[in-house]
């Protein structure tokens, strides 16, 4: 079945540090790929997405590139802020399926 | 900006009782979903709903669960006889289904506590 592997957290960084959160997936066909973010006490918000190979999704300084050859969708940001502290979920949606398959989430803590 | 809303934000119930969780999807969206997140664990898919019927469900979504769209705006999840292990955050989501977009928009969640 479909699955997602995310790097375990928590990831603790200082403000302005570079962020990478790794995500690899297994899914049938050509999945659409999503990153969702969950801020403390809130629901899931779409951060960015990519729908085909080599597409780059970007939003709020975050980027992720759909790498079909390595089945990866790593999240990056060049300079994190304290306000980026949250839990980040990688979530592919396999071709022909309605459901998103969520990773276990990676907690990011950014210190001033 | 339109958003998915859910009520209540927190529901406490006794084991064996029935609960109904309510969601108002984004207007004009055609696809509706329920997910749950047990504390400290990953978000899990429960069910998807389109054209007034279930289009996909997971093994979690057994006979204790049901969904309904009773009118043009609400989408509900009913748990007939709650168990302790049903305690979780339940998220509703909706998707447009038009224009090729496949983004699911999530509500803020209902925290269900079964005692």
List the helices and strands and how they pair.
The complex is a heterodimer of chains A (112) and B (115).
Chain A: E1 3-6, E2 11-14, E3 19-21, E4 23-26, E5 32-38, E6 44-50, E7 56-59, E8 62-65, E9 75-77, E10 86-93, E11 106-111
Parallel strand pairs in A: 2-11
Antiparallel strand pairs in A: 1-4, 3-9, 5-6, 5-10, 7-8, 8-9, 10-11
Chain B: E1 5-7, E2 10-13, E3 19-24, E4 31-37, E5 43-50, E6 53-57, E7 65-68, E8 75-79, E9 88-95, E10 105-106, E11 110-114
Parallel strand pairs in B: 2-11
Antiparallel strand pairs in B: 1-3, 3-8, 4-5, 4-9, 5-6, 7-8, 9-10, 9-11
Structure characterization notes:
- The complex is a heterodimer of chains A (112) and B (115).
- By secondary structure, chain A is mostly beta strands.
- Helices cover 0% and strands 48% of the residues of chain A.
- Chain A has no helices and 11 strands.
- Chain A has strands spanning 3-6, 11-14, 19-21, 23-26, 32-38, 44-50, 56-59, 62-65, 75-77, 86-93, 106-111.
- In chain A, the strands form 3 sheets. Chain A has a 5-stranded mixed β-sheet, with no helix packed on it.
- In chain A, a hairpin with a 5-residue loop joins strand 5 and strand 6.
- The model of chain A has no long low-confidence stretch (mean pLDDT 92).
- By secondary structure, chain B is an all-beta fold.
- Helices cover 0% and strands 50% of the residues of chain B.
- Chain B contains no helices and 11 strands.
- The mean pLDDT of chain B is 92.
- Classes of the chains: A mainly beta (112), B mainly beta (115).
- Chain A binds chain B through residues 32, 34, 36, 42-46, 49, 51, 89, 91, 93, 97-105, and chain B through 31, 33, 35, 41-45, 48, 50, 55-56, 58, 91, 93, 102-109.
């Amino acid at each position: 079945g479909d699955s997602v592997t995310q790097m375990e957290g928590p990831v603790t960084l200082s403000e302005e540090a570079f962020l990478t959160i790794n995500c690899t997936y297994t899914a049938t066909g050509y999945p659409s790929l999503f990153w969702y973010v969950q801020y403390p006490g809130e629901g899931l918000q779409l951060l960015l997405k990519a729908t085909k190979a080599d597409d780059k999704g970007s939003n709020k300084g975050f980027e992720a590139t759909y790498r079909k050859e390595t089945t990866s969708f790593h999240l990056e940001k060049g300079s994190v802020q304290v306000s980026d502290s949250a839990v980040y979920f990688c979530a592919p949606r396999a071709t022909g399926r309605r459901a998103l398959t969520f990773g276990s989430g990676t907690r990011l803590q950014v210190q001033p | 900006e339109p958003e998915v809303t859910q009520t209540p934000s927190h529901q406490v119930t006794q084991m064996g009782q029935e609960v109904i969780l309510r969601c108002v999807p984004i207007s004009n969206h055609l696809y509706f979903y329920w997910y749950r997140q047990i504390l400290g664990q990953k978000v899990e898919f429960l069910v998807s709903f389109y054209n007034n019927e279930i289009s996909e469900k997971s093994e979690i979504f057994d006979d204790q669960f049901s969904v309904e769209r009773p009118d043009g705006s609400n989408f509900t999840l009913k748990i007939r006889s709650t168990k302790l292990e049903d305690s979780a955050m339940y998220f509703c989501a909706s998707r447009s289904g038009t224009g090729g977009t496949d983004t699911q928009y999530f509500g803020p969640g209902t925290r269900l506590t079964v005692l």
